[in-house]
Amino acid sequence: MAAPCSPESGPAEATxxxxxxxxPPGEPVQEEEEGPGRRQGKVTVKYDRKELRKRLxxxxxxxxxxTQLYDCQEEEIPELEIDVDELLDMGSDDARGARVKExxxxxxxxxxxxVGDLLDKIRGMQKLSTPQKK
Length: 134
What we know:
Low-confidence stretches: 5-12
Radius of gyration: 22 Å
Strand content: 5-15%
Mean pLDDT: 74
Number of helices: 4
Oligomer: single chain
Structural class: alpha+beta
Strand order of the largest sheet: 1-2
């Protein structure tokens, strides 16, 4: 199988998301203006970028808060996973809060403010399970 192409090997001017394809083995390579042996294709599946940005910001905020709660560096935070999609699947804020408190059982600092803020931040968010076709 041919090695994947890096974005740096494409044209200098980007007009949007692009995927580069190589010719299958055994086929003659045709030289094109865009690059040797490559043709451009558009990405056909798009994620909701606004939701992705919100999720990334939330995850960064969670890491920042956990470093303060556990009073340590990010690498030293105990193994725990706050699964936002799992929380969104739960029926009520009470169930979500109980789950987060269960995950933070080893934290010696008060967690009520963190849990309340987290529940406020995820309210209205959508699950990011599968991409949306457009």
